Structures are given as C-alpha cells and as structure tokens.
Amino acid sequence: MHTQHFPAPALPLYARLRERWSAGIPCSSDVVFAFGVSFIWLALYNVRFWELTAQAMWHPSAGSLLFMASLFLLAWTVLSLLLLLSPSRWLMRAFASSLFIIAALGAYFMSEYGAIMNQEMMRNVIQTDRAEAEALMSAELWLHVTLLGLIPAVLVWRVRLPAIGWRKQLGHRALAIAIALALSVAGMFISSANYATFLREHKPVRYTLNPVAQVVSMVGLLAGGREADANRPLLNPAGKSERTAATSAKPLVLFLVIGETARAANFQLGGYARDTNPELAQISGLTYFANTASCGTSTAISVPCLFSHLPRSEFKVDQAGNYTNLLDSLSQAGFDVQWRDNNSGCKGVCARVASVESCRESNCFDEVMLADLPETLRNLQRDTVIVFHQKGSHGPAYSERYPPAFERFKPACRSNQLQHCTEQEIANAYDNTLAYTDHVLASQIRMLREASSQLDSVLIYVSDHGESLGENGIYLHGMPYSFAPATQKQVPMLMWASEGYVRRSQLQADCLRTEAKTPVSHDFFYHTVLGAAEVRNQVYDPHLDLVAGCRRGGGHE
Q1: Which terminus of the chain has a lower count of CB atoms within 10 Å, N or C?
Q2: DSSP symbol at 396
Q3: What is the C-alpha separation between 526 and 311, in angstroms, rounded?
Q4: Is residue 171 domain-shared with residue 249, that is, in the same domain?
Q5: Residue 233 in domain
Q6: How many Cβ atoms are within 10 Å of 218's Cβ, its own excluded?
Q7: Mean pLDDT of the chain
Q8: What is the domain count for the chain?
Q9: Enclosing H/E stretch for 90
Q10: Tens digits of residue pLDDT in 39-76
Q11: Number of other residues whose CB lies within 10 A of the CB of residue 109
C-alpha cells in the first residue's frame, strides 16, 4: 500500500504576516542595533545638516572629502552613544523609539522651515500654546511623523536581540564605543584645520544634527532654568522708583503695544513700497524709528528682554525671572498696570501685575483687546499703563491673523505650509497682517485722542522680532541671533503722544524725529518708557531714553 503525501496548504497572507511579526526582526547584538538605528537617523533624518555642512565646508578636494567622511563617522558615533550608554536594553529601545519621533519632527521643521534646534528653539517649544501649535499642524506633517516617526518607533520594539549576560553586553558595548571614539578622534586629528573652521565659524550647523541637537538643547535649557531658580532669589536692582513730575490735573495713560513677528523691511513708514501702514501714515504727531534692532529672534527671548533693565549684551533669559522688571517699577511708582494678552502669554513679565487673557479661543483678531477701551478710558481716574501683547503677524498661518476685509494684497497664501505657496503669495498674506496691525494701532490712537479732554497719553509700539519669508530657503523666525538674517532682527518701532502730553512734558516733536533717524534697539525701550512715564530709578539711563534729550530746555539728565 502506497501512502500519498500532499504538500501542506499555504498559510493565508495575513497569517504569514502575523507569524513574521511574532517572530520579530532579528539583530545580532546591541551594538548592531545602536549603530544601525543611528545610521538610519544620519542618512534619512539629517538632510538639513548635510546641506548646511556642504554649503559651509565642501569644495572639490581630497581634504574636503576626508573631512566629510570623518564628520560622518563622528556624527554616527555621537548618535550611537545616545543608545549605547543606556543602562538596559529596555531603556535603549525606549530611547530609540522616542528619538525616532523627535527626529521625524525635527527633520520636518528643519527641512521645511529652516529651523535650528538650539536652546532658544526648545524654549519656544516649551512655551508654545495650543493656538500656535495648531497653526503648525498639517496633513503633510502628520504623514511625515507617521511614516518616519511612529512606524519606526513601533518597529524598534519588534527587534529580537540575542539572550546574553549583562557582562558580555557591557563588554561588547565598551569595545564598540572605544573603537568608534578612537576612529572619530583620529579623523578629527587628520582634518583638524577643517574642524577648527567648522566649529568656530559655523557653530549654528551643529544645532541641526538630528536628533541629538534637540536632546542636548533641551537638557541644557532645563538644567539652566533649574539652576537659576534655585540659586537666585528675586532681586530689585532698580531700587525705589519715583515720579519726577508734579501732579497733573489729568491722569497719564501709557499704551505699550508689543507687536508680534512684524519686520521693519515691510513697514510702509520705513520706506516699504506697499501701503502696509495707510492709517498710521495719516496720523500727525507720530514718530517712526526706522532702524531698530530686536533683542532676540523669538518671543520667549525678546519679551522678557524688552522689559529688563539689562541690555541685550548682558541679558540672560534664564535669569530674567530673578529680577524685577519695568512693570514692577511702574507699579511701584504709582501706576495702575495691566497686561492684555492675545498671544502666548507674557513670558513671566506680568507675574506681579494684573493680567487679562483677551481670547480663550484658538484664534482671535487683535481688536479683541480693544473692545472695552473707550469705556475704560472714560472711567479712568489714576495714572495707568496698559500693555497689549498682539498676535500680530505670527506665522505660518498669516492669513488667519486678519479679518477678510483686510485682504488687500492678493492672492494671499492660505496654507500653513509656506513651501507650497509662491513667494508673492506669502508676501501678500504677510503684508495683509501688517495692514491690519496698522488699523489696530490707529484705532488705539484714535481712542486716546477722543479721550484727550480727560487724560494725557502716549503710545509706544515695538515688535518683538522679525520674520523670514522664504529668503534663502528660511521661513519664520527663531534662528540664533548671530546667524539670523536681518529680517528676523530689524523691527518696527513708533511713538505717538497726545497734544496734552506734549505740552505737559514740553516735548519737542522735531527733536524726536531727528532722534528717530539714529540706530536704536530694544535696549532703549525700558528707559524710554520710564522717561515717558516721568519715572526714575537707580538703573535708569538717560542716554537710552529717546525722549530725554527732546524736552524743552533739556538734554540728557
């Protein structure tokens, strides 16, 4: 009797996939896992790093080729150390999984917007509110993060590593680290001249090495913040703040308007060809400071710096919360002080004064902060300072920053993925935001004029930082200050004073317009506001007060 053998039926496709999934992805050792994952990061997630490195260092020569090869090895070693130094396999997988998501996000924002992942950018990430985060969301971003972040993050846990003792694991890792470091150091020694140039002249490039730049910057930021908070109590270098002028029959009101992302290059008052300031251009008594430099390239830096007594050269944002600021001095001098916010908060500046969040929705236009102003001014009895923190021109969704009636420049980019719009469409949308800011400022000045029989008033407007609109492939803001283009650092600033204030303070408008032609910066804001408020303290510097030399019979005090 013959027995007939039949082949086993083939498993269905889903069953074969499930079987392979259950079996996992074989990997010979921890070292292969770490260097393999790091190679993927270096090759696929660091396009921006290699672009900037090539622009800075590449030229056709054997020395340049050797430098690029040694840099690849050095970067590969650094990325691998993030995993090899983890104390257990579970943590190594957890780090790799998390870093895939971080790397995917970093690769997207560096490639699409030219972002630099330094501490300033990490501070922006921490302080970003829901509205700002939602403005950056897109289907393309989610697809990118899913394919290059979430899927690899899951697959990491399917890698099957051989079962060996921890001593043997440690020995393998130590040997691999020693060899990699030795080769990296040798490569750096051979190309030492190129490394000297690269590390000294092109420092910002290192903040695009993905994902190590985000990790190092975040750790440095958090460590610096804890050290400052722990070791530095609240200090008052300004001492006692006092009024210098006699009591007036009418209250004094100061409007301090902190703009958002307005760049001077696109301000009509500064010579821009388009009518981005049609209303302000018609207002008499207004002085525009055409050459103003910001303290930083992000809100998180510039806003605390604006209200600090320290100049940009001495200002450290991690320590700003340890000092009293301009609003504290004004409050001590007897002003009622209020902060009105339509942005992402006051960054600690308003910690000790009254604050109002004007909009709890995801997006409100800046006029929301003005709704009750006429009534507030009518009922005002005391000297008052009101700070308005605008949404302004915050990108990338510029078209969401102004009402439809202010879409004067068309067609406007309506996407938060600026790389999908033409340069003209981006400029149109951005210029529309400035035209709306122009309207908001003009409305505030009109309100102050209408209340001039009851009070004397001053309005000072300055933007926190500028913006890149795609020039040289760079968008938005937040680049390291020394590396940032002028469009991120040159900002508009203007001042308007009521006729009653001009008489009261004996202010000479012609003199102020002459002062406006000289280069100024955010360093002048603290002292100019004190000067306008007729307040003095120990850190007040008349040479940084733009109105001090323009009072009749005056000069710098």
Answers
A1: N
A2: S
A3: 9
A4: no
A5: no
A6: 18
A7: 89
A8: 2
A9: helix 89-113
A10: 999 999 999 999 989 988 888 888 889 999 999 999 99
A11: 22
